[in-house]
Design a protein that fits this description.
Length: 957
């Protein structure tokens, strides 16, 4: 049967709900850091439409469309109606697989509908994230015994409903770890005036190549911006260098910075900043101070401390002597940390190989993942990982005999137990003890439930890691610490950076844990379902039998957009330690570096050309083709393989279509929606993603003739235009993307499409044809003329302004538009203006049409640009029209009227074109005068030429 997604999709509703609210998936994303996630609205719509049929009866079509639209109004809207509808069509139950499941947004939405949902991911980190979201919250844990902690019975009274058991226990345990962690780290993060600081501002130091003294690398000396409305002058700091002692003191003051930072921009220095020594003034070029860091000569220095303040939020001050001593003592304590296992030292020794976001780790002398943090940051992570790991032994009933893992206190003598000893918090409050030390209880939960609870605690640690490296910078405007993925790829290196403390405030354990509990609370409040089956595996080698699944719905990797395993290895090495007891299999890897396996990862490593990494475009193509082939194999013949794809490069698109074809699939539907908002990771300059419907190709397909297939494509697109409009696709660019589906479906009915010479025709021809046919079928008119009546250069310009006006468009759009009109890049010179990574329609000044170029036969758009450049002058415009012999060209007047309408009179060029069209009569009169003057001049010149000829022949006048 034909599935709904092959003919209709709620594009408008997906777009409307993806930005915020329930459909954004922001709540679900707060559970675990991962680098790409479908908005929940898109995942839900894709699941529903991939399962529901597309009936032949129009009334029934409308009923199902209304059902889906209504379901897009909330998390579980129309849940019961959808479950009943699916049960009618699948009496034995439906099943869905996502072979690139990530954090499992797609399996989650299928599971909530009672569908047997499976998720597979190559990364063990992503697999854990998926289990925490789409598996464990849908299980019944109400029969588990109470947790063996003092204070737990009182806590559990707040969660009397059986289905809240998981939420109750996770809430209890993450608070317990926060209290234990603060108590354990008390001497390393000392209180000042009875309060513990929120965070500490550090900087990397290097020795000056001129005077040899060490100085900090600082980029911004402002700490808090002024707020005149509240009478807040703001705060900054300056560095005072003492030449005699060779020391530097950071002095905090009110107001804006008084002096420059040590990192400064240098004229003509290219990329990067120079570093100025505050002692001698020597300026190190970016390359020079980078070499110093690469050589392992960098250090760390604490500059400023941030306290929570009820009036201004964060108030900054200089560190006290005990605070500096406590930070220094962390290095001693770290050296005494015991390993998590014989092969698992406390500080990660897994090697950092290659690059992160194009930058080599070696540039910053990062040889292992243990080098990402300063000693105290590392010590805090050891404490959190040990507390999480030790928790499982207690939950499983073995804590009383378990040896304590510890490190030395600041005095170098007393061992601290990394989460297994302190019984009172730093402020004197009793910390619930493990193993019933006060109550005598020896109860234990099941091993499986213990692993589940430890997994949620580990997820908090992962999110806390985001703000515990030298790559965590201060966001001055929002007064918070940024995370290490703020710019997309993992960036664990910086110059001046923030270290969050162990108590309260943004980025601390307690802050992150609150978000985790809130996410789980939302999941607990939703309707039930069937727990998803989330496992680690490879999309290129599925374990399902042939034709076992109703549908495959997936959001695969997009070429070189995200390096999933490389970016998550920082999490992986710490999760290996936090889960050492509860999930010993987690740390098993065939990668000799000790990190996640990458052999079959379907990505393109950004720096493969210079790093020699095996993850090349050819590797990606092989992997994605094999994955699609496996999806085609395991889905039933009447089922669909739904693929969400958001890459904007035409070349990547053609490779994707080639992979779909090679896998034995036919593209049957293509549905655009604007789903990428807010974050950089996973966005990569895209806003629109396509939800593609594919189905297994029929065996023994015949060959087709190009002319016949093109006629089929025209018929299919004509028939589907009303359906697209009903789905909210009214914009030209959206309908063009939607046209890929019917075009490739028609071509896919044949094993090959041959031209009149018998040569096979590639997918690029059908994409271009589909885009062009949308305009032809929709009969896009410029005035009374069809778009095709104009020259190609003008068609390009008119099509562009119809879609984007003067707004910025993604960097790939010019290539797509040129494909539509069969043009080369040189053919569109002067029509677009590049602004960073985007393109805008050029202004008349930017088009740079030279006066000497004005001649008959000029493209209409270029004549229009020349008219706009002439301005609101009858004579100047008349001269342009006369020079191009286009005063009576109705196509030109239609172009200027359309541009005026598209751009409006608030646009400088649009204002001129509006004026010109309104003053056409006067301009034509001026042009006629110019033409008459030119004719008279030509007659005079001709007459004078005849007279000269007579004289030359010796004839008398």
């Amino acid at each position: 049967m034909t599935r709904m997604i092959e003919r209709w999709f709620p594009c408008a509703e997906v777009t409307a709900n993806s930005k915020k609210g329930w459909g954004s998936g922001n709540t679900e994303k707060a559970l675990f850091t991962w680098f790409a996630a479908r908005p929940l609205a898109q995942a839900k719509a894709a699941v529903i439409c991939s399962l529901l049929p597309w009936p032949n009866d129009v009334t029934e079509q409308e009923r199902l469309c209304d059902l889906v639209r209504d379901s897009m109004t909330g998390y579980d809207a129309m849940h019961d109606e959808l479950v009943d509808e699916l049960a009618e069509h699948y009496p034995d139950g439906a099943s869905i697989l996502d072979p690139f499941s990530g954090r499992a947004m797609i399996p989650l939405e299928a599971a909530r509908l009672g569908v047997k949902a499976y998720g597979i991911d190559y990364s063990p980190v992503a697999t854990l994230a998926g289990k925490l979201l789409a598996d464990y919250p849908l299980r019944d844990w109400s029969n588990e015994p109470p947790l063996p902690f003092d204070g737990y019975p009182e806590h559990a009274m707040r969660y009397p409903e059986p289905h809240l058991r998981l939420l109750c226990d996770v809430d209890f345990l993450v608070k317990w770890i926060g209290d234990r962690h603060e108590a354990e780290m008390d001497e390393f993060y000392p209180k000042v005036n009875g309060k513990r600081p929120w965070a500490y501002l550090w900087a990397v130091t290097i020795p000056c190549n001129e005077c040899g003294r060490k100085f900090p690398l600082t980029a911004d000396l402002q700490l808090r911006k002024p707020n005149p409305k509240k009478g807040d002058p703001g705060q900054s700091y300056e560095l005072i260098a003492n030449v005699a002692t060779g020391s530097i003191e950071a002095v905090v003051h009110d107001g804006k910075p008084r002096v420059p930072a040590t990192l400064v921009k240098q004229a003509g220095s290219g990329k990067g900043r120079g570093a100025v020594c505050p002692f001698c003034g020597y300026v190190h070029s970016h390359a020079e101070h980078s070499r110093v860091r690469e050589g392992g000569q960098a250090g760390d220095v604490m500059l400023v401390v941030a306290d929570l303040d009820p009036e201004v939020g964060k108030r900054y001050r200089e560190p006290t002597a005990p605070e500096r001593q406590a930070a220094d003592a962390a290095a001693v304590a770290l050296a005494g940390c015991e390993p998590f296992a014989p092969d698992l030292p406390a500080v990660p020794d897994e090697r950092t190989l290659g690059y992160s976001g194009g930058r080599p780790y070696s540039r910053y002398h990062y040889e292992t993942f243990g080098d990402f943090c300063n000693p105290r940051q590392t010590l805090a992570l050891v404490s959190l990982a040990a507390a999480t790991d030790g928790l499982f032994r207690v939950l499983a009933g073995g804590a009383t005999s378990a040896p304590e893992r510890g490190f030395l206190s600041p005095d170098g003598n007393r061992p601290l137990a990394c989460g297994l000893s302190a019984s009172r918090s730093a402020d004197g409050r009793a910390v619930p003890t493990l193993g019933g030390e006060q109550s005598g209880s020896t109860g234990a939960v099941s091993a499986e439930y213990g692993r589940v609870l430890v997994g949620y605690c580990a997820s908090v640690m992962v999110r806390a890691q985001n703000r515990r490296t030298r790559g965590c910078r201060m966001e001055i405007a929002e007064q918070k610490a940024s995370h290490i993925f703020a710019t997309g790829a993992l960036v664990p290196f910086g110059n001046d950076y923030v270290e969050v403390g162990c108590s309260e405030g943004p980025g601390t354990w307690r802050s992150v844990a609150t978000l985790t509990v809130n996410c789980l609370r939302k999941q607990s409040s939703r309707v039930g379902g069937i727990a998803g089956g989330i496992e680690r595996g490879s999309a290129t080698s599925l374990t399902f039998v042939t034709a076992a699944l109703t549908a495959v719905v997936t959001d695969p990797p997009y070429d070189a957009m995200i390096e999933y395993s490389d970016s998550s290895d920082f999490f992986y090495v710490w999760l290996k330690r936090a889960l050492a007891t509860s999930r010993p299999e987690f740390r098993i890897t065939a990668n000799p570096a000790g990190t996640q396996e990458k052999f079959d990862e379907a990505v393109v490593e950004m720096t493969h050309a210079r790093s020699g990494d095996h993850r090349t475009p050819e590797h990606y193509d092989r992997c994605i083709t094999a994955a699609f082939g496996e999806a085609c194999r395991v889905v039933e013949h009447s089922g669909v393989v739904t693929v969400m794809f958001g890459h904007d490069d035409p070349e990547v698109w053609l490779r994707l279509l080639a992979a779909i074809h090679a896998a034995g699939l036919i593209l049957t539907g293509s549905w655009p929606a604007r789903t990428e908002y807010g974050t950089q990771m996973g966005k990569a300059n895209i806003e629109t993603t396509l939800t593609l419907a594919c189905r297994p190709a029929e065996p023994d397909r015949p060959e087709g003739r190009l002319a016949d297939v093109e006629a089929e494509i025209r018929r299919e697109i004509t028939a589907r235009l009303p359906l697209w409009e009903g789905a909210g696709l009214v914009a030209l660019r959206d309908q063009r993307m939607a046209a890929y589906g019917p075009a490739m479906e028609a071509a896919g009915r044949y094993s090959a499409v041959l031209d009149h010479r018998g040569r096979p025709v590639g997918a690029d021809h059908f994409l271009t044809l589909a885009r062009r046919l949308v305009g032809e079928i929709a009969d896009l008119r410029i005035g009374s003329f069809p778009l095709e009546a104009f020259d190609k250069r003008t068609q390009f310009a008119l099509s562009w302004t119809r879609q984007y006006q003067r707004n910025a468009a993604a960097g790939s759009e010019p290539r797509w538009e040129r494909l539509t009109h069969d043009m080369e890049e040189s053919d569109t010179r002067g029509l677009l203006h590049k602004v960073k990574s985007t393109y805008k329609f050029a202004t008349a000044a930017q088009s740079d049409i030279a006066k000497e170029e004005l001649a008959p036969g000029l493209a209409a758009i270029d004549t229009a640009f020349a008219v706009a450049a002439a301005g609101k002058s009858v004579s100047a415009v008349a001269e342009v029209l006369a020079a191009t012999d286009s005063a009576s060209d109705e196509l030109l007047w239609a172009v200027m009227a359309q541009l005026a309408a598209d751009l409006g009179d608030t646009d400088s060029d649009g204002d001129v074109w509006t004026w010109v069209t309104r003053n056409r009569t006067a301009i034509l009169t001026g042009t006629a005068v110019i033409a008459e003057d030119e004719r008279k001049a030509e007659r005079r010149q001709r007459d004078e030429g005849e007279q000269l000829t007579l004289h030359a022949g010796g004839e008398p006048l």
